[in-house]
Amino acid sequence: MSVEFAVDADGWVAAARQLPSPNFEARPAGAVPTLIVVHNISLPPDEFGGTAIAELFQNTLDCDAHPYYDSHLRGVRVSAHFVIHRDGALAQFVSCNARAWHAGPSNFFGRERCNDFSIGIELEGSDTTAFEAAQYRTLGALVSALKARYPVDALAGHSDIAPGRKTDPGPHFEWQRLQKDTALADQYFPYLKFSKTL
Ligand SMILES: [Zn+2]
Asked: Which CATH number fits the domain that encloses residue 62?
């Protein structure tokens, strides 16, 4: 089953479930999205389904509902442009034209503040679990749509731009599968070590 998306001039994907987050701001003058950052998230950790991710991004999460929320998420203001759920369903929280708050302190080959020039995509998942085929299908189609709208020239994991601080999307994320699905050249994956022993 093939999936196709389009990003409109306002930075929204009409086919996504739109759940606007208040956690965004304008990109700095002249900044355009050139980097796609892939993350994983699950709330509570390692539990899938439910509405906690959306609630976190919309500042409506009840931090009394789980000890992890209480200890880690109280007062936290974060967002990503997109979340891809386990069934491949796509939700959008912030216009791609705006700066979402997904990467935190980060460095892309010497360039800091990656939120300024990136689009953040969260896969519902964890560092201990394989992602679903439906998630790769949606991700591949979304990356293609983003590349059609913006001068995207690289993809990275959160762990690549915040090493030592972040581990997502984790060891189960298949970068080569994403590369195959998107038919993007090696140069788009600057952190990927390409095997010379195919
Ligand atoms: Zn992350």
From this structure: 3.40.80.10
Q: Is the pTM of this model over 0.85?
A: yes
For residue 69, give its domain range.
Answer: 17-188
Q: 198 CA to middle of ligand 1, Å?
A: 31
Catalytic residues: 122
Number of domains in the chain: 1
Q: Is residue 178 part of a domain?
A: yes
Mean pLDDT of 27-33: 97
Q: What is the 3-state secondary structure (H, E, C) of 147-196?
A: HHHCCCCEEEEHHHHCCCCCCCCCCCCCHHHHHHHHCCCHHHCCCCCCCC
* Ligand 1 center from residue 37 Cα (angstroms): 8
Confidence at residue 1, expressed as pLDDT on a 0 to 100 scale: 55
Residue 195 has pLDDT above 70, yes or no: no
Q: What pLDDT does 198 receive?
A: 43
Ligand 1 mean position, distance from CA 162 (Å): 9
Q: What are the residues whose beta carbon lies below 5 Å from ligand 1 (ion)?
A: 39, 158, 168
